[in-house]
Amino acid sequence: MSRKLLLVSTSTTHGTGYLEHCEEEIKNLFEGISTVLFIPFARPGGISHTAYTEKAKEAFARIGIGLKGINEFKDPVAAVQQAEGMFIGGGNTFLLLKQLYTQQLIKPIQERVAKGMPYMGTSAGTNVAGRSIGTTNDMPIVFPKTFDALQLVPFNLNPHYQDPEPNSTHMGETRQTRIQEFHVHNTQPVIGLREGSMLQIRGDKMQLLGPHSTRVFLQGQKPQEFKHTDDINFLLDAV
Which helix (H) or strand (E) holds 81? Predict the structure, then answer.
């Protein structure tokens, strides 16, 4: 498989601007590409597709790459089929997936990625790259036809993963607890991506990038920590 993916936990880290913390990785992913197709359907904070696209354009302009929103095309399917590269931004994962199904973009995206079109996701855009969106942190403000996502990788993701605070008086469930609840009913691995972390995938090779280790959850097992130097390619063989 010739897939080229960059799955980023978040678009903005503390003290940085939009996409600043992953500029080098973006350059590497889209090397030789003049214009990236942006999908703004997740609409963070409810902003318009136009406003979201302009924000992404400004960030990509800093690194010398053009960007056009899918909302600027009359035929979204044709836009995907002709795209050199794709970026799906963050926001609400349920809204994003619903729109991908409504506009019949699931299969076209899968086909283009399988043929080597570079794909980047942040937050919700990373969630939909997995098997399902069952491990998103977002509220179900709308209802997609199914939780099945793009399935560009055979596992689920939990962007913005937060570790339990040992001195916290909060009595609600932790992210770890929620993922363990998920595994009562689902078998696929879940990768918890801490802020600033990202996965770079080239074919059948995957590498963790960014400042933190990642937490991997396998059904029926204790959570495991993996560093940048650890081999996590086994997750690409999950069934």
Answer: helix 76-82
What is the architecture of the domain spanning 4-237? 3-Layer(aba) Sandwich (3.40)
Q: For this structure, is 138 an active site residue?
A: yes
Per the CB < 8 A criterion, the answer to whether 184 and 176 are in contact is: no
Mean pLDDT of 21-44: 97
**Which of 138, 183, 197, 212 is flagged as catalytic?**
138
For the chain, domain boundaries: 4-237
Which of 9, 11, 21, 123 is labelled catalytic?
Answer: 123
The string of pLDDT tens digits covering residues 104-154 is 999 999 999 999 999 999 999 999 999 999 999 999 999 999 999 999 999
User: What pLDDT, on the 0 to 100 scale, is given for residue 1?
Assistant: 63
> What are 168-174's contacts with CB under 8 Å, separation 24+?
none
Average pLDDT over all residues of the chain: 96
